[in-house]
Amino acid sequence: MNTERPLVEVRDVARWFDVSAPWLERVLARKPRTMLRAVDGVSFSIRKGETLALVGESGCGKSTIARLLVGLYPLTRGTITFDGEPLSNMEGPNGLAMRKRLQMIFQDPYASLNPRWRVGRIIAEPMLAHTKLSADERAQRVDVLLTQVGLHPSDQSRYPHQFSGGQRQRISIARALAVNPEFLVCDEPTSALDVSVQAQVLNIMKDLQRRLGLTYLFISHNLAVVHHVADRVGVMYLGRIVEIADRDALFENPQHPYTRMLLSAIPNMSGDGGRRTPVAGEVPNPLNPPSGCTFHPRCPFARDLCQVESPATVTHGTTQVACHGVAQGWPMQG
Ligand code: SF4
User: Fold this and answer.
1) Burial status of residue 211 (CB atoms within 10 A of its CB: 0-12, 13-18, 19 or more)
2) Mean pLDDT for the chain?
3) Is the shortest distance between the CB of 302 and ligand 1 below 6 Å?
């Protein structure tokens, strides 16, 4: 693994959404504004060439982070830097050059490809904005990209509906690579695919990463997928990262009760030294999150402190974890 300075640094990032009722209704009912804190105080870094996976149940904020990282949403608070430059510079004069270095692969290869365009045009389209290549040069590059993702150059002339789901996601990957990015944000890239083709697409992504020196942020709710692709893993719960660690440390010795709960739910993957934490309860309504540690209503180890005080993130070896029990050494056997 590379030990250079981080390529991506995310510091105390928050993204809130105003989900208030319409103004008149709110005024008549004397209701305050309602803010959905989709992401609230998230920090992490990603080294060049590594894959950081963010995992958690739906609604935990991981897809919001994906969109913040490619500039699709403005930040409510905090900073994101890419190769030392604030991401907010994407709006400035050098913004186009910066955008070229960050690309995104979306979850649904059916919705993200224009059904009326041939594949060659779909893949070449980002080159129009970001390169000065001639039409011939673009077509040649499309040939190379299609080959790199395991398709045939002749597939340029076909339409998306003529491909399977796995092939469409390969086309999405080829399009994302068209402008030679360094960092790919992958938002559940295989979750819409049959299990049988998920591994093929993941292996292509890993192979491309090795060959092209790519850096990935990989969003997934599937811990088996995360185990296959990640170097490090961050576990999210209600807008915060509750644990972040090297992959093997996280899977073999999870610290946070929520991480242990997620792992306990997966057969053959609960390598937590017998400290199993049974799966309990539902994710609370993010519009009305619990006080203190937001996991306390579901946590079998919660004490009074957990209901009133949000735990700070502390470092244990290579693991960072936000839990009063871990920080204070409470007995936490499942
Ligand atoms: Fe459980 Fe308390 Fe730790 Fe939250 S802070 S995970 S409630 S022990």
Assistant:
1) exposed
2) 91
3) yes
